[in-house]
Write a structure and sequence with these properties.
Blueprint (H helix, E strand, L loop, with lengths): L14 H15 L1 H6 L3 H10 L1 H14 L2 H9 L2 E3 L10 E2 L2 H4 L11 E4 L3 E7 L7 H17 L5 E8 L3 H4 L2 H7 L5 H7 L4 H4 L5 H6 L1 H10 L1 E6 H16 L5 H19 L10
Parallel strand pairs: 4-5, 5-6
Antiparallel strand pairs: 1-6, 2-3, 3-4
Protein name: Restriction endonuclease
Length: 275
């Protein structure tokens, strides 16, 4: 067992294990990019263009940051379903160690948990989002609450390069995202879930129906762009710089500053007039 009580080899709440996990997963799913690289420079460029390593970097960062910073991070999102998150102790978890690994709904990019709340983060740079993904997340949240006691408040947050509605599949966007707030429009899909189900998800939906209804009744949705996330961390850096010198300050500035630089290199932070 490790210091968090997790079995050896399980991803769990460990920044080291998450680093290995994301490298292995990226190689497994994107091995064609590794095989096509003719030089280390080509390989490096391919990795920097990929979403998976960025997801891994954010996961590790959230594992290392104090819970107070993570609470502020979640509260920088536009939130539908509650006003804000209260101060909590947050942990990073890999969903496969918590539930049956054969559950083939969807794999969250990041799972943040407190004693009362389970928050999935779906991270997008170039790829679009589709309603089927949204439904799979609802099913996974419902299944997780069904097999774990006590259940936790379900939250689903999106981090996207474009505004949430513009990151959505074009045909679905034109059909469902017609109001002034894409997050509000997304929340309305909760009431149409049954009629939007693809045939392959009908059986698990019926099996989980009571848990799904409970999940939909409690669901909290959130959205932020990568640029907004970057600006949040820039503000955190400014706050740290005003603090007295300490080991904590030095470490936090390195952690957050390097992540901000990564977002800038990927051109994910939109420059403002103040930059």
């Amino acid at each position: 067992m490790d210091t968090d009580g997790h079995k050896e080899g399980i991803v769990g709440n460990s920044w080291v294990k998450h680093s290995y996990h994301y490298f292995i997963e990226h190689y497994y799913w994107e091995r064609q990019h590794f095989n096509r690289a003719s030089s280390i420079e080509d390989l490096r460029k391919g990795i920097y263009r990929s979403e998976v390593p960025l997801n891994g970097v954010l996961t590790v960062l959230l594992r290392l940051l104090p819970s107070s910073t993570i609470t502020r991070f979640l509260n920088c999102f536009e939130i539908e379903g509650q006003k804000s998150f209260n101060p909590s102790t947050w942990s990073i978890f890999d969903f496969l160690e918590q539930i049956d690994s054969k559950i083939d709904f969807i794999q969250p990019d990041v799972t943040l948990e407190s004693a009362e709340t389970r928050t999935f983060l779906e991270l997008k740079v170039a790829a679009v989002i589709e309603v089927e993904q949204f439904i799979k997340y609802i099913l996974l949240l419902a299944h997780w609450n069904k097999i774990n006691s006590p259940s936790k408040k379900p939250c689903l947050f999106f981090v996207t390069k474009k505004e949430l509605g513009l990151q959505w599949n074009k045909a679905e966007r034109e059909k469902f995202f017609t109001g002034s707030s894409a997050l509000f429009d997304l929340a309305q899909l909760k009431y149409k879930l049954h009629e939007l189900l693809p045939p392959k998800l009908l059986a698990p939906y019926e099996e989980l129906k009571p848990a799904v209804e409970e999940t939909l009744g409690q669901l909290v949705l959130g959205a932020a762009t990568w640029s907004q996330i970057g600006l949040f961390f820039i503000q955190e850096l400014e706050g740290l710089k005003s603090q007295p010198d300490s080991d904590y300050k030095e470490m936090s500035i390195k952690l957050i500053g390097d992540f901000v630089n990564e977002l800038r290199e990927r051109k994910l932070i939109v420059k403002t007039s103040e930059d």
